[in-house]
Amino acid sequence: MAGYVPLHRRRREGVTDYRSRRRAISSRRALLVVRISNKNVSAQFVRPAAKGDLVLASAHSAQLRKMGWQGSLTATPACYLLGLAAGKKALEKGVKDAILYCGLAPFVSGSRVSAFVKGVRDSGLEVPVDEEVLPDEERITGKTIAEHASKLAADDREAYAKRFSAMIERGFKPEGYQEKFEQLRTSIAGGKK
Fold first, then answer.
1. Nearest to 90 by CA among 54, 44, 128
2. What is the domain extent for residue 131?
3. How far, rounded to the nearest angstrom, does the alpha carbon of residue 180 sit from its chain's CA centroid?
4. Is residue 149 part of a domain?
């Protein structure tokens, strides 16, 4: 007679997808764990172990503020820049490749997580994903945001001021997204771009 088999606590809480984690661990590579909230982005390169995951390198969107980024910390350009910085940091710690592990969150083509992965890949670290799922250069550089801000500023100043109020308070003009992005990308990449 088959009885009731309860789910693991972390699965019940909606935290861990054990099947996905088992597949990722069996690859014997480091795991790249990316989490995006409403206000921040964080990522860790972890090596799974029986007693708990060992964090090899980590990155948090607050680091972008220290580098001079004044735009949104959770927008696609910020996710790319943080991925680039995280990849550089992981390479310094000896991580050469990683497997993306999203847990229960779905991986969506062109999303902020895929922008983060593109940044990691552009740093020189290998993360196996199909090129087609990564966002295009216009989204990564913030061109779409800048165009939207320019159009909104011309059409409806009140909506513009409301939509971009946090950036404007920090002294950042959303129309200049691309220029600021390129400056920070060059700084993180070490002047190579």
1. 44
2. 12-141
3. 18
4. no
- Residue 16, in any domain of the structure: yes
Q: Where are the alpha helices (H) located in 2-142, listed in sequence order?
A: 9-12, 18-26, 62-67, 76-92, 112-122, 137-141
- pLDDT score at 36: 93
* 186 sits in which H/E element: helix 177-189
Question: Residue 176, CB half-sphere, CA atoms under 13 Å: how many?
Answer: 12
CATH number at residue 131: 3.30.420.100
The confidence score (pLDDT) of residue 142 equals 94
Contact 83, 113 (CB under 8 A): no
| Closest alpha carbon to 185 in 102, 109, 133, 115 | 115
Averaged pLDDT for residues 50-56: 86
- Tens of pLDDT, residues 68-113: 999 999 999 999 999 999 999 999 999 999 999 887 778 899 999 9
Q: How many CB atoms sit inside 10 A of residue 142's CB? A: 28
Candidates 39, 93, 85; CA nearest to 63 is 85
Residue 5: inside a domain? no
Decide if 84 contacts 188 (C-beta within 8 A): yes
Whether the model clears a pTM of 0.70, i.e. scores above it, the answer is yes
Q: Is residue 174 part of a domain?
A: no
The total number of structural domains in the chain stands at 1
Task: Locate 123 and state its tokens.
Answer: 């740093």
Centre a 10 Å sphere on the Cβ of residue 187 and count the other Cβ atoms it contains.
Answer: 15
